[in-house]
Amino acid sequence: MVTANKAPAAFAYRELRKLAEEKGVKFLHESTVMDGTPLFNLAKAGLKGCTIKALSGVLNSTTNYVLSRMEKGESLEEAVRFTQKEGFAEADPRHDLEGWDASAKITVLANALMDATLTPLDVDRGGITHVTVADAQRAVKEGRNLKLICRAWREGTNVRAKVSLEEIERGHPFAPIRESGSILMIETDLLAPFVITETDPTLYDTAYGVINDLMSLGE
Asked: SS3 breakdown of the chain: % helix, strand, coil, rounded to 5?
């Protein structure tokens, strides 16, 4: 099974993985988060023996693009219209602006990489609909940037997840991620924290992730 649709992986990851195992097939979903960037393949191949303790990042390009435009003086409505014109935001942008897309993405990551049992409904979810130009420009003047940040972390035997607006200090790895870019920080028990970034992704990136999964089916 191969999908780029994050909803099934977010709401029924364990069920789909179990079904794939019962049928003797693979369940691959590389393009569900950060387009075709090889997040899941990297973790599977490159983090053997590691336990992932926490995940965090900027995972929704629409809100990141909107916040970047608001720093330059555009209102939320103007910035949303621009991202719609550029093809990043949907006709109804609430799924992005209210944090649902980001919640689905951090859920897929937590379930696949941290063996969590979350759905997007379990995520402590916030959005950016309340942000004003004054908020965005004040943060910049104070040496920070507003970002919609996704987080997942271990709390005892459970995994928790949160999506919220945060003010990120200028020197933080998340701060320079502009417009349609994304970034994920992975923290493990054995390695220093490291980040994976993507810049200006297109539909070809998503398509590549699907093709890569299809090619992996025969391995």
From this structure: 45, 20, 35
**Does the annotation count 105 as an active-site position?**
yes
Categorize the per-residue pLDDT at 90 as very low, low, confident or very high, splitting at 50, 70 and 90: confident
pLDDT, tens digit, for every residue of 108-118? Answer: 999 999 999 99
- Continuous segment of H or E residues that includes residue 46: helix 39-46
List 18, 72, 105, 141, catalytic entry: 105
- Residue 159 Ramachandran class (φ > 0 left, ψ -120 to 50 alpha, else beta): beta
140: which 2 tokens?
């910049």
Instruction: State which CATH number among 3.30.360.10, 3.20.20.70, 3.40.50.720, 2.40.50.90 fits the domain covering 38-201.
Output: 3.30.360.10
Residue in 174, 173, 157 with CA at minimum distance from that of residue 165 = 174
The reported pLDDT for the residue numbered 134 is 98
Report the alpha-carbon distance of residue 168 to residue 176 in Å, rounded.
10
Q: φ and ψ at 67, to 5 degrees? A: -65, -35
Is residue 163 helix, strand or coil? strand
Q: 0.70 cut: is pTM over it?
A: yes
The angle, 0 to 180 degrees and rounded to 10, between the axes of the packed helices 39-46 and 100-114 is 20
Domain limits of the chain? 38-201
> Mind listing the pLDDT tens digit for each residue in 160-173?
999 999 999 999 99
For the record, the structure tokens of 35 come out as 């387009």
* pLDDT computed for residue 66 by the predictor: 97
Nearest to 142 by CA among 170, 165, 172: 170
Phi, psi of 98 (to 5 degrees): -95, 5
